[in-house]
Fold:
Amino acid sequence: MLAAFDQLQAEGYLIGRHGSGTFVATVMPDKMVGVRADPVASGDHQVAGSRLSTRGRSIASGSRVPLPDVIGARDLSAAFQIGLPAVDEFPLETWRRMYTSRLRQSGPALMSYGDPAGYAPLRETIASYLVTARGVRCTAEQVIIVTGSQQALEFCARMLLDIGDPVWLEEPGYLGARAALSSGGARIIPIPVDRDGLDVAAGATLEPNAKMAVVTPSHQFPLGSTMSLERRLALLRWAATKQAWVIEDDYDSEFRYVGRPLAALQGIDSYRRVIYIGTFSKVLFPSLRLGYMIVPPDLVDGFTAAHLGSDMHPHVIDQAVVADFMVHGHFARHLRRMRSLYAQRQQLLIEAAARLGDRMRLEPSNGGLHLVGWLPNDVDDSEVARRTLHHHIQVWPLSQNYLTRPPRPGILLGYAGANHNQILAGIDVLDRVLPSQHGPA
Structure:
């Protein structure tokens, strides 16, 4: 009986008054639970948004990485989602066996808190791989494991910039970088890109005292150009002179179909001004959420502390399995298979799109996972994207990647994650929605 009274009192049904006894509560807990605040009108977004700080509103209103309108929607074709690898070709059975084996061998040891810099064997494996495959100069101690390139970009903005610092960003550029820089309070300076990559001379004219430059030198996103050696050296000289940082986002350099992958910018940096970022999202699968940074030795402690201040560390078991996957040769074999497959899929896309004629022009690329479909100047690429989405096909309007007025409309067509039939079906949709030479379709 006493236990029942104690329970009712703990839940708020009874109130005990010292020296007077125990009484039934005036307001029952059930009524309190049932109280609901007046709902905010669906169109009154300004009221809800006003709860955010000025900086918060800036972050919330910024464009993020392009993803399907309905994440994981089953009726959305893989054609032509950008940044999506061939997840259906991933050696899932091998991965499952290695995951099970790792859990059986050392599961309990991997279930506690991990090193905020990352799982040591994976850091060693990544360092060894990058030295050979990308010409990166580093030790395992300089490798910091993160939950993808987006977190790496956010760490760079948070740890290296003060509010209002100017930053060079490629124009057009990666929306994820724009979002991370905005989150860090940076003042973004769009720097034009041409066939030789970021125009360093233009950057020095527009904002010579920028604190950082964020670049994709091996395969510029989204246009696909490669930064020339002359531009690379000029960028490094500028960074050294101004004591600025260069963030090298090497998001898909593994997929080069002509010759060997180009050496990383970090490998020729004698000033230690480059921070190199890589990701497993494109080479393995996006939901893995693992990437890495190569930072100068004097920044290792600071970036490790940044991890402790956010999510502490990525999933340790996943890190261990990736290390095993690489050490046993599965990573290299998978890359070789995917290079061949993606080269075939790019060629199929180019051949299938030829029937669109002047309504969309494609230029082949020596690497990457997407192509730019160039549209006539009088076509609205955002409208094309909206119309294709009605047919369950996602294309990304190139204009969204500009902070200034885009010189020419275009759409980004991801082909890596689309099989033969999906690519052909996607071209059929574009054939229906793209305006004809004589007016709208």
